[in-house]
Amino acid sequence: MADPILHIKDSYFFELPKVLYPIEYRSRKQFPDVWIRNDPEFQDWEFHRQYGELVRLKAGLPAENIAHDDWQAWVHADHARHAMPFDEFLEAKYHEHLAAFRSWRQAQIAAAEGAKERDPAALAAARAKTLKDYLATSEVIDKPYAKFSGLRDTPQFQGEWAAAQRWAGRISQPTDSYNSSDAPEWSKDKIEVYNHHLSGKLIIPQPFGELRNLHEAQSTLISQDTGWINYHNLGFCISKFMVIEVVVGLLLVLVFSWLGRKLLSGGAPRGKSWNFFEVFFVFIRDEIARPSLDGHHGHEEHGHAEHDAHGHEAAVAAPSHGHEVPAHDSHAHAAPAHHARPSDKYTPVLCTIFFFILGCNLAGMLPWVGSPTGTWAVTLAMAMITLLAGFVGGVAQFGLAGYFLNQIPSMDLPWYMALVLKPFLFVIELFGLMIKHAVLSVRLLANMLAGHMVLLAIMGISFGATAAAGFVAADGTISPWWWVASIASVIGCTLLSLLELFVAFLQAYVFTLLSALFIGAAIHKH
Known about the structure:
Mean pLDDT: 83
Number of helices: 16
Shape: globular
Largest sheet: 2 strands, antiparallel
Radius of gyration: 32 Å
Distance between the termini: 47 Å
Strand order of the largest sheet: 1-2
Helix content: 55-70%
Number of strands: 8
C-alpha cells in the first residue's frame, strides 16, 4: 500500500466539492469496477470462485472455511493489506516459502562448504536444491499452503492459475460475472455510504490498465524476501498528475506556436501577451543561457554587437568623432562575424524546462488540482532531461570518449601520478555527475512538497478550531477562543499562498539556471 501521506499528492481521480459532483447510484451495478473490487461482499464472492478453481487444479489447500479464516486473519494483521483479495494472500504465502527456501538452501551450502574436503559432491548437491526439495522437508513453514507454492513455481500452473484469477474476478461482463450473477444486492445503507464517499471524486478512465483502488494501480506481489512487500504494476494507469502534465504541455505547444509565428514576422512586440512572453524569453536567453553556455565567447562580442528582441545581431557603428562614416566603411566598425552560439541551440530547451516547471508549479495553486512537481517521478524526469541534453551536447562536441574524458579536470601531473590519480578522479566525477542531477531533482521536489505540507498543517489549525467550537466546558459554556485559531489559520494560509506563488517562479528559475550550468559544463572543456 502506498504511503498515506503521499495520497494527498497524486491519485487516479480529481477531487471536487461534493455539491458540484454528487453521486446518487441506486445499485451496485452502477458503481465503478475499482470500487466494487474492494467491497467485502465481492471479495467473498471472488474467494469462493478462486477456491473452486484451485480445487479443480488440485492445489491441496486446507478446507474452504479454514482458508477463508486464514485469509481474513492475514488481511487484518496489517493495515497495509487492507482489502487485499485471496489471490494476494496466496501469492504472499508463495513468497514466504520462497524466502524460507533460500535461507534453507544457504544453510545447506554453508554446511557443505565446511565439509567439502571430505565430500566435494555435497556442495554441488546443496547448490542444486530446488523449492520442491525444501517443501518436501519437515522444516517447511505453512504446510497447508506448501503444495500451492510448489505448483505456483511451475509454468503450466502459472498459466492456468492466471486464467482462473481473471475468470473469478469478472465484475461487469454480460455473463458469468459478479453483476450478472444472483449475488445479493447491496443494502441501501451501504449504497448511501458509498455514494457519500464517491461524491466529488471524478475518476479518470483507465483504458490501458486496472486500478487496485483510487490511489494505486493494480499490481502483483513480486518479492517479500526482505520483509517488505514489493509490487509490480500491471498495465499503464493514468494518474491526475499525468493529466495535468499533458495539459501543461499542450498549453506550451499552443502558446509557443503562436509566439513563434509572431517572432517570424520580424516586427516589434505588440500587445500585452506578446510582450509578456517576450520578457521571459529574452531573460532566459540573455541572463541564463548566454552567461552559462557561451562562456568567454559571449563576452568577447559584448559591446561590438547588439541583439534585437528576436536574437538577430545588428551592427553598431563606432563613434565618428564629428566625421560621418561612409556607408561602405560601416563593416570596419561593426561587430566581428557572427559565430554560432551554444546558447542559440539550447535556449529553446531551457525555455521549455522553465515554462513546463512553472506551469506544473502554478497548477498547485489552483483549487482541486495539485502540483505534479510535488512528486519525485516528475522532478527526476526533468533532471534526466538536463542530464541527457548535456550528454548529447557533450558527445556532439567531443565524441563519446571525449565526453567522458572531459569529466576529468585538467591537471599538469607527471605521467606516473596521472596513471594512478586520474582513474580515481574519473570515477569520483562520474558519481558526482549522477549525484548533482539527482540533487537537482530532490531540490525542486523538497521545495514544492514542503510548501504544500506546511500549508496543509496551517489548514489543520482551522479544522482543529472547528472541533474546538463544539467543545463544552465543565460549566456548560462553549470555549470562546476558537475564532482566534480560525482567523490565524486564514491569514496564515493567505500569506503562505502568496509565498508559494513566489516560490513557483523562483524554483522554475533556479532549476533552469542549474540546468544551463550543468549543460554548459558538459559542452565546454574543463
